[in-house]
Amino acid sequence: MSTGEADGAVAGATPGTGPGARQAVSEARRIVVKVGSSSLTTAAGGLDADRVDALVDVLAKVRGADQEVVLVSSGAIAAGLAPLGLRRRPRDLARQQAAASVGQGLLVARYTASFARYGVRVGQVLLTSDDMSRRAHHRNASRTLDKLLAMGAFPIVNENDTVATDEIRFGDNDRLAALVAHLVRADLLVLLSDVDGVYDGDPSRPDTSRIAEVRAPADLADIEIGSAGKAGVGTGGMVTKVEAARIAAAAGIPVVLTSAVHAADALAGGDTGTYFHATGRRSADRLLWLQHASAPQGALVLDDGAVRAVVEGRKSLLPAGIAGLEGDFAAGDPVELRDGAGRAVARGLVNFDAKEMPRLIGRSTRELARELGPAYEREVVHRDDLVILHP
Q1: Domain positions in the chain
Q2: Which of 174-183 are b and which e, b meaning 16 or more Cβ less than 10 Å from the residue's Cβ?
Q3: Cβ contacts of 65 within 8 Å, gap of 6 or more
Q4: Taking 90 as the threshold, does the pLDDT of residue 390 lie above it?
Q5: 123, β-bridge pairs
Q6: Pairing between strand 344-349 and 322-327?
Q7: Cα 237 to chain center, whole Å?
């Protein structure tokens, strides 16, 4: 799948999604907007004040129309490149964190000054994957964002690149935006970048068309996914945007994927970019982050009967069905549940420490309760704390 440049209408674009097809956009009361680094900075790094102001002009107008908006903004690392004399985005984590440390302050300062033109205060919220995967942190993040909105501040969310390690990074803000949309119970997610939608081929060819809407993942099954835009200062390409759209849509949140220059049209429900219809219902917060944000701390290997019980029967995992384990995890940590071939079939929160597991493996809960006490007459992973990865 290829992407086109955001320079107005595209020749050969598919007809619109039809009258009322994007009604969910115009009816959305709480919206999460994600903007990529390439839409805010120059290719060499450094913020483009005019681009930031143009985006804020759109967001302030939407916010003033009795709608709530949360902005997930990339750009911290890119903004820190030029001030630190870096010609391109560094590959090593330490220099990325240094650039983020410098750039995050510049980014928020620019947003603060721009929103001040409308008398709007800005609130910064920096998150790591760990914040989304641990229940207490997850609840606190939700409360903070809700309170900022209630108090009239404009929340700006970014990954906390200055402290995130390789093991707990989101990797791109597209996925973070999808999770934030679910976290704040948004009615709509808008993904903005330097590309104006999803195409069914190379947009430079005259026979290529913009895909105006996606009703199900199968609609893109035969489309080759393209790479990132031309700016080269971000980490996300079309692959990450489509995956983020799928995550949000599966959680009951429609998505518009388009370019930053078409932000106003997208938020007004216009026929711009690619519209992803909601394909599922909202799930429990812990299940969404468990599947898409948690970092497994170990693995439990299941026998064939346990795989069937967990995957097909949607049952809890009992000690009797475990054939082995890997890793050094603690009670409450996320772990992978694997079949005999090593394929991860599910992910869940484990109720025991890894050091306790050897004496539990393959034994019935009744036997364990009799020998070790009533605390051991329970599931290793309860079905309410378990998400299926491969049905």
Answers
A1: 23-288, 296-388
A2: bbbbbbbbbb
A3: none
A4: no
A5: 155
A6: unpaired
A7: 13
End-to-end alpha carbon distance in the chain: 27
Instruction: Check if 23-288 and 296-388 are the same fold.
Output: no
Angstrom distances, CA of residue 314 to CA of 43, 53, 112, 272, 370: 49, 50, 48, 40, 27
Structure confidence by residue, pLDDT tens digits, 333-379: 889 999 999 999 999 999 999 999 999 999 999 999 999 988 888 99
| Selection from 172-176, 228-232, 349-353 with the highest mean pLDDT | 349-353
pLDDT digits (tens, 9 = 90+) for 40-77: 987 666 789 999 999 999 999 998 767 999 999 988 88
Indicate the CATH number of 23-288 among 3.30.1360.40, 3.40.1160.10, 1.10.10.10, 3.90.1150.10. 3.40.1160.10
Measured N-to-C along each axis, helices 285-292 and 135-150 cross at an angle, to the nearest 10 degrees, of 120
Helix axes 173-183, 135-150, angle to 10 degrees: 70
Backbone angles phi, psi at 15, to 5 degrees: -60, 165
What is the fold, at CATH topology level, of the domain defined by 296-388? 2.30.130
pLDDT of residue 234: 44
Q: What is the pLDDT of residue 93?
A: 83
